[in-house]
Design a protein that fits this description.
Elements: H1 2-18, H2 23-51, H3 63-69, H4 87-105, H5 109-129, H6 132-138, H7 143-158, H8 163-184, H9 193-211, H10 223-252, H11 254-299
Helix pairs in contact: 1-4, 1-7, 2-4, 2-10, 2-11, 5-6, 5-7, 5-8, 7-8, 7-9, 8-9, 10-11
């Protein structure tokens, strides 16, 4: 259920970060946030797969596969991801692509709310349309979570829960419960639909408290650092974690392996933030900005 909460938070945060931005500013921000750490994680995960302990049943990572993964387009290109968790990044990119239409027109409460209604309806109709591209872009299984996140950000901006926003949230929750069996499929036996729906409902309630400012009193100093390393932590935890567990679990025991693994991947995530993201993002921003200035001069 962590992934669906991630998509809900993403709807909130992306709507917030896009507000008042041009399309170019929006995409520049997304590229700078996603790609530098992702490139490092792809190389690190590929190296771990080729040089580290082998996990039975895992296919060998090829150089071509690694290079294709660097584009973040391996899903539509039908190339296996270097790390299984990377599939979510394509879902994120689809969200950015269709949300770009709102950013292009200018983000306002009315336009974002209308976008939520249209996307909700489109996500219902897309599977029956027979149009593969439409089904790919509208991501019907995951759309309700992004829609809920955007609606919660509208609540945050308005400072209150309004009738239309409540309707969007209610519709998204109803679509979630309908999509939940498909989300649970393949996750193993014994997963209870009611328990999963209860967990998601708690996520809705938590997001509601955040949107209404009820948790603004939380100002712990370590939160910005934790926020900065969540993305690199997500990118490396699986590929490295599975190898550690498979290779050392019996030798070290369950608890030492678990605690050592958590400490290790958190440290690696922090190092990626400090040694990759912090120096590389300003460099890429400087490389991108001259192109922006040049286009402005040409337009003038």
């Amino acid at each position: 259920m962590g992934v669906v909460f991630f998509f809900m938070i993403s709807g909130f945060v992306i709507c917030m970060s896009a507000w008042g931005k041009s399309l170019q500013q929006f995409w520049q921000g997304r590229i700078l946030r996603l790609f530098p750490l992702y490139w490092a994680a792809v190389v690190l995960s590929s190296a771990a797969a080729r040089l580290g302990p082998h996990v039975p049943g895992e296919p060998r990572v090829t150089v071509g596969q690694m290079l294709t993964n660097l584009t973040m387009l391996q899903e539509p290109l039908r190339v296996n991801s270097v790390d299984n968790v990377y599939w979510t990044l394509w879902i994120e990119l689809c969200f950015y692509l269709i949300f770009s239409f709102v950013v292009l027109r200018g983000t306002t409460h009315r336009r974002v709310a209308t976008f939520c209604w249209i996307w909700a309806l489109g996500s219902v109709l897309a599977p029956a349309s027979g149009i593969a591209l439409l089904d790919q872009l509208l991501v019907p299984k995951w759309a309700p979570f992004f829609i809920a996140g955007m609606a919660f950000y509208l609540v945050r901006r308005a400072g209150r829960l309004e009738g239309e926003t409540l309707g969007i949230l209610a519709l998204s929750w109803l679509l979630v419960q309908h999509r939940l069996p498909a989300i649970m499929e393949g996750e193993g036996h014994g997963i209870n639909w009611k328990v999963c729906l209860a967990a998601i409902t708690v996520m809705y309630l938590l997001m509601g408290l955040i949107a209404l400012g009820k948790l603004d009193w939380i100002q712990w100093r370590w939160l910005p650092v934790a926020g900065a390393i969540t993305y690199p932590l997500y990118l490396v935890h699986h590929s490295l974690g599975v190898r550690v567990i498979w290779h050392w679990n019996e030798q070290w025991g369950a608890w030492p392996t678990l605690l050592g693994l958590i400490a290790g991947v958190v440290l690696i995530a922090w190092l990626l933030h400090r040694l990759v993201e912090r120096p590389l993002v300003p460099l890429l921003r400087r490389l991108m900005n001259p192109l922006h200035r040049s286009s402005q001069e040409t337009s003038a």
